[in-house]
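I am writing to request your help with a piece of structural work I have in hand. I set the record out below, with my sincere thanks for your time.
___
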Amino acid sequence: MPIFFQQQINENTRLGIWKIEETEEFFKGNVPLHREVTHPHKRLQHLAGRFLLQFLFPDFPYQLIEIADTRKPFLPDEQYHFSISHCGDYAAAIVSKNQRVGIDIEIPVEKIGKIMYKFLSASEHELFNLVQGLKSNTAIMNFNEPTILWSAKEAVFKWYGDGGVDFRREIQLRKQYETTKTIDCFFSKNKTDLTIYYHLFDGLVLAWIVN
C-alpha cells in the first residue's frame, strides 16, 4: 500500500501523502469522480486525493462532496473539514472532524524561486533573507526555502477557501522556526493569526494548517 506519509495531528485530525502507483481503474472502483477531468494524469491525481480522504477516515462520505463556486470541495453539513493537494505522483490530504484545515504539497523547482516577487512582499524577502531564489548567505541554489514559503501561502489560501486572496498583501508570513518546522502568519483578510506547519522530504515540500 503506497501510503508515503501519515500523521495523527490530534484526536480529530489526520493527514497523509499517497504515492500514486495504481491505475485509474483501481481508484474508480473506490472513488466517484465528481467533475470531468480530461487530462489522464490530473484525473489520476484527482481520484487519488479523494481516495486518501477515506483512507484517513473510513466513514468519510464521498457521495456528499459538493464543489463551491471557488472550486473548493466541501461537505454541506461539515461532518468533516478537508483539504486536498497534489503534484507529480503524489496526493496529499488533511481531514478534521472539528477544525478548518488547509494543505499544500509541492516539488521544489527553479520556477518558484524566479516568481517570488509575485507572492512575497518586500518585507518578506528581507525577513527570510531571499534573493532571486537563493538564500543570500549561500552560493548554492536552494529551491526548498522559496517552495516552503509558497506552499505555506497556498495552505492558507486553501484553509480560507473563499478565493479572492492577495498572496503578497493579505498572507503575511512573520517568522519561521526551523526547530519546530513552523511559520507564524497573519491573515489580514479576516484578521487571523495562524501557525503553518511544514515538512521537508527528499524532493518534496508539505505545508498544512489546522485552525
